[in-house]
Amino acid sequence: MSMLRHFTAEEVEGGLDYPRLIDALDAAFRSSGEAMPVRQTYDVGTADTPGHLLTMPAWDRGRTLGVKLVTVFPRNAARGIGAVSSLYVLLDGRTGQPTALVDGEALTNRRTAAASALASRYLSRRDSRTLLVVGTGHVASHLPEAHRAVRPIETVLVWGRTAQRAAALAARLREKGFSATPVSDLPAAVAEADIVSCATTSDAPLVHGRDLRPGTHLDLVGAFTPAMRECDDAAVLRARVFVDTRAGALAEAGDLLQPIAAGTWSADQVCGELHDLAGGQCKGRRDDDEITLFKSVGAALEDLTAAALLAGQAAAAGRPQREAAALADRSEAV
Fold it and tell me: Is residue 333's pLDDT more than 90?
């Protein structure tokens, strides 16, 4: 019977360094030919307390499988607790036995940033040095470190709806070695950046196509429902568009669904998904002047890959200790 291991948020942060996680996601998307289910959402609230349960299963047949459980209770703020909670359950793909419980929020933050960096590996210019982060939340704070794992990021510009929060995030990034500055003029910052990475819950465009200069890579992370969006139609029209998965993006991504509904853009203009980029089925950036756009809504394969990597590293690290203990036991027996 397998031993169940619990990974805290601190262990997730310490155990999933970006270079290794990005490479693991690259390999997973390259080899995965099986479509994973789009996340399912269930209404589990009451008239007084609205609530939703989301499930995100994924598997690597014969090796490992898992599911992320997410709850969203918007009125939790009145109780002094977060609106979103999540837990990842990792299971053995041969026996079905649970092997790990992983803090879901920390796992989501790191795999989301790593997926953006993976897309950037194929879509941003190799000499990209200036990153604009739009947003000041948990995912936004992870994006610079992830992008720096694949591009020579030197300068980070931070924009947020609240100047104080933008300044606070910039200060934390400076502690990590970035030249980070809060900005108030978003259009000017967009025009200056090599990579624009958005991680917000906006329902109105923040990045406009008219402000994107040739060669920019636009990374849209935050909007995850048809009613939400972070860029306008013009940005989509000016760019070659890629997604994490077609099924997920074309079901949930307002950044794409709203231009489709308006008749200004069509789903068949998606150039490829991460599986296509990683596997070489489609070409990423073609030259230094084109504008590229990556839209992610989150893929269950990313959670599975990150959780399996974390658990595998922990098992490998513990193996020498177990072998030493077994050797000591045998010595005592002799």
Answer: no
